[in-house]
């Protein structure tokens, strides 16, 4: 539907802006690794492992609109164009245990890993519009547990943020056209009107109590003066 597509495009535009900002000369440092920056960068400089993001996982944001998701055999074939791959570890939703849009690719040599990062970053994998430009960075090396997403729902944080933005975008559009909540039922316009009048009643009650206190205080001072 048109509203969904609008929100979809808005979220993707924001994500692309975030990518532009975060793509600089400074490498990403995972603070959860338990290493100093110097130790982390040292391991990174010798690593043969790549982090690959922006894959289409079955749990990725918007994946319900796609005919297929990026599969492990596709990833293996794609990265073997740059050298012999030692392993591919698929990123999983921590709760659902299904692919969620990232993976780790380990080569046997640093040279092949560097070639892959140079040649394959921002290339298309799977040919799926809007989701097909993969992002590649060096990683310090896979450890058990790192295959799971870190979002509150178990997936990738960025997917959960984008899904929330899309939902909020659709919510605002419905609200603008139909009074703030979509349908004019007990959960929509009626609730807003009811809340407004309840707040007005509370304000009137407060003003009444305040005036009563003021009158009592004035009478008390008047009696004291007499």
Automatic annotation (TrEMBL):
Keyword terms, alphabetized:
mRNA processing, mRNA splicing, Nucleus, RNA-binding
Q: Name one GO cellular component term.
A: nuclear cap binding complex
RRM domain location is 48-141
Q: Which Pfam families match?
A: RRM_1
Q: Tell me the GO molecular function terms.
A: RNA cap binding
Q: Which named protein is this?
A: Nuclear cap-binding protein subunit 2
Q: Where is this region: Disordered?
A: 173-226
InterPro entries referenced in this protein's UniProt entry, alphabetically: NCBP2 (IPR027157), Nucleotide-bd_a/b_plait_sf (IPR012677), RBD_domain_sf (IPR035979), RRM_dom (IPR000504)
Compositionally skewed regions (Basic and acidic residues) per UniProt: 204-226
Please name the GO terms of the biological process aspect recorded for this protein, alphabetically: mRNA cis splicing, via spliceosome
Q: Can you tell me which family this protein belongs to? A: Belongs to the RRM NCBP2 family.
Its localization reads: Nucleus
Q: Where is it predominantly found?
A: nucleus
């Amino acid at each position: 539907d048109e509203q969904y597509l609008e929100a979809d495009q808005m979220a993707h535009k924001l994500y692309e802006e975030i990518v532009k900002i975060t793509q600089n000369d400074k490498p990403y440092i995972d603070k959860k690794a338990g290493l100093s920056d110097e130790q982390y960068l040292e391991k990174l400089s010798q690593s043969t492992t790549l982090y690959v993001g922006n894959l289409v996982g079955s749990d990725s944001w918007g994946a319900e609109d796609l005919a297929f998701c990026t599969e492990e055999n596709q990833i293996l074939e794609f990265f073997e164009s740059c050298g012999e791959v030692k392993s591919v570890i698929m990123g999983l939703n921590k709760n659902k245990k299904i692919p969620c849009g990232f993976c780790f690719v380990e080569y046997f040599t640093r040279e092949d890993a560097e070639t892959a990062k140079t040649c394959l970053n921002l290339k298309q994998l799977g040919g799926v519009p809007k989701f097909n430009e993969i992002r590649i960075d060096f990683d310090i090396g896979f450890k058990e547990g790192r295959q799971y997403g870190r979002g509150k729902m178990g997936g990738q944080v960025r997917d959960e943020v984008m899904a929330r933005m899309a939902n909020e975008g659709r919510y605002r559009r419905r609200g603008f056209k139909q009074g703030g909540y979509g349908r004019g039922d007990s959960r929509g316009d009626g609730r807003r009107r009811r809340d407004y009048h309840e707040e007005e009643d509370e304000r009137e009650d407060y003003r009444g109590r305040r005036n009563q206190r003021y009158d009592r205080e004035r009478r008390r001072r008047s009696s004291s003066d007499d």
